[in-house]
Amino acid sequence: MNIRPRRLRRTPVVRSLVREHAVRVEALVMPMFVAARASDAGPISSMPGISRLTLEQAVAEARELFSLGLRSVLLFGIPDRKDAVASSNYDPNGIVQRAIAAIKQAIPEMYVIADLCNCEYTDHGHCGIVDERGEIDNDETVELLVRTAITYAQAGADVVAPSDMMDGRVEALRSSLDAHGFDGVAIMAYSAKYASAFYGPFREAAGSAPQFGDRRSYQMDPPNAREAMREIALDIEEGADVVMIKPALAYLDVVRMARDAFDVPIAVYNVSGEFSMLMAAIERGWLERDRSIDELLVSFVRAGADIIITYFAKEYARRASS
Questions:
Q1: pLDDT at 166 over 70
Q2: Is 193 a catalytic residue?
Q3: DSSP secondary structure string, 167-220?
Q4: Extents of the domains making up the chain
């Protein structure tokens, strides 16, 4: 028998006909940085094409994203003040709370996800409360996250996305949200968030670099994969609606393991360093722009991701709509 798989690769039509995976615009989430002060808004030098936005710009950006078919945004706040206990994070009039309300008022159908962490709001840059030993107090940090999540829900958030990697925070969030009448607010847990080298540009964008030490005592050790399955299982048991693996590109094996093990929606975060790395090669002419972006995004789908958080979302959606 003359077996020739190339028969089904001969033309664009047949390749499209037998294509196994595709990136859906509706499955993409665009991260947005919203600044409380206009002076903090503007382009991010390490992330070409990405900017910190004023509240008004964020609403306008959300309108444009929605017109392109993007239905979900992930919000990060750039506050006007920081302290040791992230008080500007749980302020009902904080920048994320105001952004949630403004976007939902302008585009009610937009699905607004609020990143839930403290690193942008603490003067020490860590994701939680620092105790007298200089370590992160897990349980006090969880209480702080719960307090903040309620203000996000009150502002109209559809989803809270805890990215802190504290133990037990999903259960505490679910219990508190339900007790306050927000049983319809979903939890997208950063379940397997690694202590990665690929977060550098984000830390510039959000002003969230730790002032001492690092985050390895609470974010996951990059060589570990079985531990990720345990973390994901715990979050599902505690009530997470969606689980996330972060970063995406260097952890596609973990995405595949999770897809094979769990029957829940899986998100990946194509993080700032991955974005900037690819953009640097594109800008130097080393990689073809559209093809490399498409190949990157479809790798996440092929690995098993249902939801892709990526700074390429707007560009991809614009091409898809043209």
A1: yes
A2: yes
A3: TTHHHHHHHHHHHTT-TT-EEEEEEEEB--GGGHHHHHHHT---SSS-STTTSB
A4: 22-321
